[in-house]
Design brief:
The chain has six helices and two strands, in the order αβααβααα. The N and C termini lie far apart (40 Å). The protein is mainly α. The relative contact order is 0.17. It has a two-stranded antiparallel sheet with strand order 1-2. The mean pLDDT is 91.
Length: 194
C-alpha cells in the first residue's frame, strides 16, 4: 500500500470511528423537553448533509463535468494535510461529545435537566462538535481536491450555521443571562475568530 493509499484509508477510518462512537454513545441521553419540528430538521439539516456528503462521493459519480475539475494536487503532502484535518476533527468531535454527556442530541433540543457545559473544548468555543465535523469534512474535501468540494463545504457550513443559531436561541431562552455571559466569553466555531 502506498503512502497516499494509507492516508486515504486513514481518513475513511476516522469517519467510521466517528460514526461508531456516535451510534454507541447515543444511548442513555436525557429525554427532550423541547425541539425543532421534524420537517425543519429534514429539509434544513439532514437533506443538506446528504447533498454535501454526496458531493464528496467517488469522483466517477461526476464524470467529466466542471465539478470534477481538480483544484488541489493528489500528492502525499496534500493527503497528509487532509489526514491531519480529518483525524483532528474527529478527535475534537468525540472529545466534545464526551464532555457534553447526556445533554447531547443529534437534533436541536432542550433536554430534561439540561446543563450548560463550559468545560473542555466548550471553554473556548460554543459548538466544538460542529467545528470537529467541519474540520474532518474539510480534510475529506482536501483529499478529493475537486471543484465540487467548495460547494460541499459551503453547504455543510450553512447547514451547521443555521442549526447552531437555532440552538443558541433555545439555549439563551433556557439559561438566560448565564448563556449571554458564556456567548461573550466564547466564539461559535473558531476560538477568537468566529
Amino acid at each position: 500500500m502506498t503512502t497516499e493509499e494509507w492516508l486515504k484509508h486513514g481518513i475513511s477510518l476516522a469517519w467510521w470511528v466517528l460514526l461508531a462512537w456516535w451510534i454507541w454513545s447515543a444511548w442513555g441521553n436525557k429525554t427532550a423537553t423541547r425541539g425543532e419540528p421534524w420537517l425543519t430538521r429534514l429539509t434544513l439539516y439532514w437533506l443538506p448533509l446528504v447533498v454535501a456528503f454526496g458531493l464528496l462521493g467517488p469522483g466517477e459519480w461526476f464524470g467529466h463535468t466542471w465539478l470534477r475539475e481538480a483544484i488541489l494536487p493528489h500528492t502525499v503532502p496534500v493527503f497528509a494535510v487532509a489526514f491531519a484535518f480529518a483525524v483532528s476533527g474527529v478527535a475534537l468531535a468525540i472529545w466534545s461529545r464526551v464532555i457534553l454527556g447526556r445533554n447531547w442530541s443529534s437534533v436541536v433540543q432542550i433536554k430534561h435537566d439540561h446543563e450548560l457545559i463550559e468545560t473542555g473544548p466548550y471553554r473556548y468555543i460554543r459548538h466544538p462538535i460542529y467545528t470537529g465535523i467541519l474540520m474532518a469534512f474539510i480534510g475529506s474535501s482536501i483529499q478529493a481536491g475537486d471543484v465540487r468540494v467548495i460547494l460541499a463545504v459551503a453547504i455543510l457550513f450553512a447547514s451547521f450555521w443555521r442549526k447552531l443559531r437555532m440552538e443558541e436561541r433555545m439555549l439563551g431562552e433556557t439559561f438566560g443571562d448565564s448563556y449571554v455571559a458564556y456567548k461573550r466569553r466564547t466564539k461559535a466555531l473558531i476560538p477568537g475568530l468566529l
